[in-house]
Write a structure and sequence with these properties.
five-stranded parallel sheet; 16 strands; Rossmann fold; RNA-binding; alpha/beta; 469 residues; four-stranded antiparallel sheet
Length: 469
RNA sequence: GGUAAUAUAGCCAAGUGGUAAGGCAACGGUCUGCAAAACCGUCAUCGCCGGUUCGACUCCGGUUAUUACCUCCA
């Protein structure tokens, strides 16, 4: 029984999919006008973990995410760089794909793009007009927010105050177009001749922000979807508006479970493109060669909580991951010297930790508690590996279990295939001989030499063990 | 101003009405030719003030601080 915190109800609810065994989820992807930063990555990773856990639990997950590839910021960026909008959009959409690959984020089942669904958007908007939920004004089309019952409840905002706030921001010209300051654009008239645009019943224009997600969620999933995810900042206005549009359009509930991840902070301030205090994944990957550390770092905090990003927390995550890898390797080394059979008692203990892991993840994806269970298994692995005799089936079971559970966090490789030179192989062999001969001076010297070449040698009761630094 | 969230050891971070998981760091042991790795042990009374309760860190009220959202933003 999996419980999911639903932003709409502000409660953890028992999860039940519409179709048994299958899940339709939509996660808001980036507006592609810049490289993604760690905050954006957190969102992708948080929902990747959600997806992987559902898959671990046996669900078939249909995961749709989008690129919003037409938008004010893209147009502005194109202006600044003197290129057309699609050049910008394609560049950063590709960068997103490149940057998320090393982070081991599974590709969406469908990766949709706003510009690919313009005809669907136009149909959608026309329907809103036909139903009286939207109106055209000088080429723009606005949604009558107050006509939609319950507008604003997702973000728990007071309608009157929202209206006041909105009014304060609008200029006179906008006020004359909008019936109500709180109304939002579902279609925007083209502002300049050279701007990207599509023909529509309301003249040349482009989609407003929000509408693309409503359209794509419906087109690639269904009228009612199980889960809709995104950063907490999207609760308002983005998801609020999506919900209003979609439900006005279909007359059905749009989303059963709204999930929102917390922010990544830097110095206790949110990391954001507008504040300029962001570290892009693109840059980070250039200077940091162990992207799995990011995945572990994010797993140490529950997805709804804010997380502070710093070199300290990153280092701690790196060390923690090393501990897991070392334990895994230590046990893996015993595979060579394991006896046939299994240790039934230990397997019972392992199963207990699996249960702890699952209980934690069932509770709204409590990765910190789940991770604690993994660490218990690592300690078990190290302790077991220290035994005089170990049984091959149990060693393998423990190895498989650690990898299986970490796989839910997207950490799917713990022992990168070591690559050593023939010379290093010979040195390792020579060192074994030296130790047999009790020539410690020579063996220490060889160990030093290997270490300089990045091969770390350790001596155990079962002989010489080595790994790459 | 409105609406929320958060406040737990040096750091990161879970958690329950009955005396605080896990990781990092630190300290002390064990093992080891040495080293490394590992294992064992030690290390907090939960922002502040009240209240409810036999008992609260866990509920209620207040207070302080921090952060976020209130149409750029994951």
């Amino acid at each position: 029984m999996i419980k999911v915190y639903n932003t709409l109800t502000r409660e953890k609810e028992i999860f039940k999919s519409i179709i048994p065994g299958k899940i339709n989820m939509y996660v808001c992807g980036p507006t592609v006008y810049n490289y993604i930063h760690i905050g954006n990555a957190r969102s992708s990773i948080a929902f990747d973990v959600v997806r992987r856990y559902f898959e671990y639990r046996g669900y078939q997950v249909n995961y749709v995410s989008n690129f919003t590839d037409v938008d004010d910021k893209i147009i502005q960026r194109a202006r600044e760089e003197g290129v057309d909008e699609m050049t910008i959009a394609n560049k950063y959409a590709n960068a997103f794909i490149e940057d998320t690959l090393p982070l081991n984020i599974q590709p969406a089942t469908v990766r949709a793009r706003a510009t690919e669904v313009i005809p669907d958007i136009i149909v959608f908007v026309q329907d809103l007009i036909d139903k009286g939920y939207a109106y055209e004004a000088k080429g723009d089309v606005y949604f009558r927010a107050k006509k939609f019952k319950g507008y604003g409840i997702l973000a728990h905002q007071d309608l009157n105050e929202m209206t006041e706030n909105a009014a304060g921001r609008l200029d006179d010209e906008e006020m004359t177009r909008k019936e109500d300051p709180i109304d939002f654009a579902v279609w925007k008239a083209t502002q300049a001749e050279d701007e990207i645009s599509w023909e529509s019943p309301w003249g040349n224009g482009r989609p407003g922000w929000h509408i693309e997600c409503s359209v794509m969620a419906q087109k690639y999933l269904s009228n009612t979807i199980d889960i809709h995810g995104g950063g907490i900042d999207l609760a308002f206005p983005h998801h609020t508006n999506e919900m209003a549009q979609s439900e006005a359009h279909t007359g059905q509930k749009f989303v059963n479970y709204w999930m929102h991840n917390g922010f990544v902070n830097v110095n206790n301030e949110k990391m954001s493109k507008s504040l300029g205090n962001f570290t892009t994944i693109h840059d980070m990957l250039k200077h940091y060669d162990d992207p799995m550390t990011i995945r572990l770092l994010l797993a140490t905090t529950q997805y709804r909580r804010p997380i502070n990003y710093s070199s300290d927390t990153l280092t701690q995550a790196r060390v923690a991951l090393d501990r897991i890898r070392t334990g895994y390797r230590n046990l893996l080394f015993r595979l060579n010297t394991a006896a046939v059979g299994k240790d039934a008692d230990l397997e019972v203990t392992i199963k207990k930790q699996i249960a702890v892991f699952e209980m934690a993840m069932d509770d709204d994806f409590n990765t910190p508690n789940a991770l604690a269970a993994v660490f218990e298994l690592v300690t078990l692995a190290n302790t077991y590996a220290d035994n005089k005799t170990v049984k091959v089936e149990t060693v393998q079971y423990l190895l498989d279990t650690i990898l299986l559970l970490l796989g839910v966090f997207g950490i799917t490789e713990l022992n990168d295939k070591p690559q050593i030179t023939d010379a290093q192989k010979q040195l390792l062999a020579a060192r074994v001989s030296a130790r047999v001969a009790h020539d410690f001076e020579l063996s220490d010297q060889i160990r030093q030499q290997l270490s300089e070449g990045g091969v770390i040698v350790e001596d155990t009761a079962q002989g010489q063990r080595w790994h790459q630094a």
